[in-house]
């Protein structure tokens, strides 16, 4: 398998993955971001033996599930979406996957099927909340989970939006992950949100476990995560890619586009890994238009 071409210069300048995951460059009251005065429900639901934390807001007929990235939660990863997606059109549900955020215990682990496990948890949670059909918005690891969920549950997933996601792991990808394994090299500002959530001792442990967990897919033929499932996705699919994303080389969204039937790709020239946060108003508008088609 040909390795993706990318660069690690951004990491050598002291940037880290969490700089793309936690930097809130677009405040919720930024121009073009509409705010809604709607209550937010927060609760836990026992799913597959785990109490999963979720947040729910909005009263719209079209239900949308938000799936966060690695180590993330609804609160840390989707503030502008929970605040500003149209609450009249959509009912918005975010979740914390098992072992992340407020869905602890258990402590997070990474067996080779952890994405499949997350996909089953996510769908089972939504069904338990009496949502029989819904769309999924998945970022990074959450996008991988959403791809698997859509392929496995074609009658349930209505539409799909993914960004910062990949269907396989290459050796070049592993180099990117290992370049940011040592969290002590991260700035204090970038470490703080994860240390607040997992503790100063717990954060390096769970982050290192994630690096090992995502890297293990290189043991599979062609680094497969969910390659064989992509042709099974039948719902309308929007792939969004930030052209300045240092975590996900451009070959990954192109691969998704080629192998998901009828999918489309939207490029954001200035977007990085956290494009839905940095350009929240543009991203929300794009998503709303796609979901309403």
UniProtKB/TrEMBL annotation:
**Matching InterPro entries, A to Z?**
AB_hydrolase_1 (IPR000073), AB_hydrolase_fold (IPR029058)
Residue limits of the AB hydrolase-1 domain? 63-175
Q: Which GO terms describe its molecular function?
A: serine hydrolase activity
User: Which Pfam families does the entry mention?
Assistant: Abhydrolase_1 (PF00561)
The name this protein carries in UniProt is AB hydrolase-1 domain-containing protein
- List the source organism: Synaphobranchus kaupii (Kaup's arrowtooth eel)
Q: What is the lineage of its organism?
A: Eukaryota, Metazoa, Chordata, Craniata, Vertebrata
């Amino acid at each position: 398998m040909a390795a993706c071409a990318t660069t690690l210069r951004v990491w050598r300048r002291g940037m880290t993955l969490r700089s793309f995951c936690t930097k809130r460059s677009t405040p919720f009251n930024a121009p073009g971001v509409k705010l809604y005065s709607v209550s937010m429900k927060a609760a836990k639901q026992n799913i597959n033996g785990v109490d999963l934390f979720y947040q729910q807001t909005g009263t719209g007929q079209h239900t949308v599930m938000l799936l966060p990235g690695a180590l993330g939660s609804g609160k840390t990863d989707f503030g502008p979406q929970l605040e500003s997606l149209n609450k009249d059109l959509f009912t918005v549900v975010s979740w914390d996957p098992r072992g992340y955020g407020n869905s602890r215990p258990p402590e997070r682990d990474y067996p080779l099927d952890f994405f499949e496990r997350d996909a089953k948890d996510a769908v089972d949670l939504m069904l338990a909340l009496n949502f029989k059909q819904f769309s999924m918005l998945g970022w990074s690891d959450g996008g991988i989970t959403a791809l698997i969920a859509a392929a496995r549950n074609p009658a349930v997933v209505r539409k799909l939006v993914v960004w910062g996601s990949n269907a396989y792991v290459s050796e070049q990808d592993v180099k990117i992950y290992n370049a940011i394994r040592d969290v002590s090299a991260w700035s204090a500002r970038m470490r703080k949100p994860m240390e607040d959530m997992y503790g100063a001792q717990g954060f390096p442990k769970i982050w290192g476990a994630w690096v090992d967990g995502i890297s293990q897919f290189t043991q599979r033929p062609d680094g497969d995560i969910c390659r064989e499932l992509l042709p099974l996705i039948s719902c309308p699919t929007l792939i969004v890619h930030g052209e300045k994303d240092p975590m996900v080389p451009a070959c990954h969204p192109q691969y998704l586009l080629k192998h998901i039937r009828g999918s489309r790709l939207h490029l954001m020239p200035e977007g990085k890994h956290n494009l839905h946060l940095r350009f929240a108003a543009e991203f929300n508008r794009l998503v709303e238009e796609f979901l309403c088609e």
